[in-house]
Amino acid sequence: MLYQKIVIAGGGIIGNSIAYYLAKEHQTKCTIIDCAGIAPAASGKAGGFLARDWSDSNLLGELQRHSFDLHAEIASDLGEDALDYRRLTCAMVAIDGVIREKPTGKKLQGVEWADLGVKGSQSMGGEDTIAQVHPKKLCDALFDYAQRTVGTELIRGRIVNAVMEDGSVAGVTLEDGSVVDADAVVVACGPWTHEAQSWFGSELEASADANSMEMYGTKYHSILVPSPRVLNQAVFFQGAGDPEVYPRPDGDAYITGFPESPVVVTDRPGQEQLIPEAISRLVAATKVVSSELGGIEPHTEQCCYLPTTVNGLPVIGKIPGVKKGAFVASGHSCWGILNGPATGQAVADLLIKGSASKIDLRPFDPQNR
Asked: Within the chain, what is the greatest distance between any pair of CA atoms?
């Protein structure tokens, strides 16, 4: 065992996935530190859409396929109902964006519920390659498993620096002045990962090695509306601003779209500023895509930042410039929930065995930034 006192900075999907696989496959506990608890930001507000093969043509393909399969294993182990996990279908639907109160013409074959101004559609996957999960329920279940089986702990606090001894991690200092002993720290802070550039000493902060933690946030708003019936098809629309709709098994429809440009995030986790105009755009878009969902008042309005890197790939591995005990796992963008389990399993292997056994992490190596 390489590390025994492991601190994970960040209580989102990545941090909880690492904790889960440390417990499940290595019988090792850790301490998660987050200023707002479990999944307060994007990991608690995401859509939870899972696609197995949408990245087959790029460097994410292996990670995505493996993680999709791990989601099915987790659901089998922890309970599909507890996670709102299910298989469903997905379609891309082109619409004209004209406001109507009633459908015109026949509903297209293969399109379950999108019925206003539909010009054409294309299948994006069936139940063999498309699934969904409730992100907050998943994060809670992953942490609960790790806490229950090996005693993993959650500390509410904000890390301000790492305690270093001879170039290696020996602990972390929190904003209140308290120190948590550690021989390894994993920076899994999503769009706040850039804050860790200053944790490991001024030499690292001023060097090119700090680029391994360069991170931005892409702001998305979303609404939840109660559907008159449980829908079973996720839809990516072309037209009316290209909204995305992910119906959930509890009857809610999760609707998102209109992303903003990436920025260095200054809002605090769980305190992201909601822009009313963005919510109005989502409500208006819903009215031109579906006679069932349009006009229903949302019961939830929210926003979050998706962690984004310069090259569009997550960064996973040892932080360069630190002798021992510093790791980063962040920057998964819109695929954070999907790729969380495979990332967590790989990082758990790194911490305990020194290398990842199921996934080739070289495309995501911090050394390459």
From this structure: 72
Residue 314: both structure tokens together: 């997550």
User: What does pTM read for this prediction?
Assistant: 0.96
Contacts with 305 (C-beta within 8 Å, 6 or more apart), sequence order? 41, 42, 190, 191, 217, 218, 219, 220, 265, 267, 272
- Number of residues that this document lists for the chain: 369
In angstroms, rounded to a whole number, what is the distance separating the alpha carbons of residues 105 and 119?
11
Q: What is the pLDDT along the chain (369 residues), one digit of tens a residue?
A: 799 999 999 999 999 999 999 999 999 999 999 999 999 999 999 999 999 999 999 999 999 999 999 999 999 999 999 999 999 999 999 988 675 655 555 566 778 888 888 888 999 999 999 999 999 999 999 999 999 999 999 999 999 999 999 999 999 999 999 999 999 999 999 999 999 999 998 778 777 778 889 999 999 999 999 999 999 999 999 988 899 999 999 999 999 999 999 999 999 998 999 999 999 999 999 998 889 999 899 999 999 999 999 999 999 999 999 999 999 999 999 999 999 999 999 999 999 999 999 999 999 999 887
Question: What are the beta bridge partners of residue 329?
Answer: 316
β pairing state of 252-257 and 244-247: antiparallel
Find, among 303, 362, 364, 307, the residue nearest to 336 by Cα.
307
